[in-house]
Design brief:
The protein is an alpha/beta fold and 220 residues long. It is built from 7 helices and 11 strands. Helix 1 crosses helix 2 and helix 6 crosses helix 7.
Length: 220
């Protein structure tokens, strides 16, 4: 499938798949979407607490890198696991302009390391940040009560509805600790209903620029 690197409206880049008319991030702004959905609506619920995060759709590494920067700024201990069924090529990922756009030139090595480390192994990126990449289909996730927070950043329902099914959200519910939270950019009724049927309590929140609403789900 053809892949293009494009610039989004906030100046940050993403990968676009013309055949699907789908991008890895919002065309309205990759970085601002990541901060709005995953940091402001997710990570900020756990101030200063050591937490474990599961990312569904590691992709270009943007969410992981921003989370690392937040952990460093807040001196917060984070154990981060990113799952990706079809990894982005290293040379593609390293063309992303996130380090420059985030004014984090001193952290270029960290961003590169995230894409160069071996899969299926835990790596200490910093004294307060461990990082694991797992190449895995989302349907095969079998973690039980391991995570405080899930970043659910799969491709959209329009192109991959199977990733937004009751089966998947049941796995997400099982993977979270009691009181754990899942955040996602999406707010389709069928997604909300699948989350509720899985046992989640649901909140609709204002969406990132270009989207009216997003969802936050909590494990009771």
């Amino acid at each position: 499938m053809k892949r293009e690197i494009i610039q989004t409206q906030d100046g940050s880049t993403t990968i676009h798949l013309p055949e699907w008319e789908e991008s890895y991030h919002s065309k309205h702004g990759a970085i601002q979407e990541a901060y709005h959905v995953f940091i402001k609506s997710g990570l900020d619920l756990f101030p200063n607490n050591p937490i474990s995060i599961l990312e569904i759709g590691f992709g270009t590494g943007l969410n992981a890198f921003i989370t690392y920067l937040e952990a460093k700024k807040k001196q917060q201990t984070i154990e981060y696991v990113g799952i990706e069924a079809y990894p982005v090529l290293e040379e593609e990922a390293l063309q992303m302009n996130y380090v420059v756009e985030l004014q984090a030139l001193e952290e270029q090595e960290v961003f590169s390391t995230m894409h160069q480390t071996t899969w299926e192994e835990k790596h200490a990126i910093a004294t307060n940040f461990t990082f694991t990449k797992r190449q895995q289909f989302f349907q095969d996730i079998d973690d039980v009560a391991q995570f405080d927070l899930i970043y659910f950043d799969a491709f959209g329902f329009r192109v991959q509805p199977e990733l937004w099914s009751l089966e998947i959200f049941q796995k997400m519910y099982t993977a979270l600790k009691t009181g754990g939270v899942l955040v996602t950019y999406a707010c389709r009724s069928s997604i909300k209903n699948a989350m509720i049927e899985s046992g989640f309590s649901i909140e609709k929140l204002p969406g990132a620029p270009g989207k009216r609403e997003m969802l936050r789900a909590t494990k009771n």
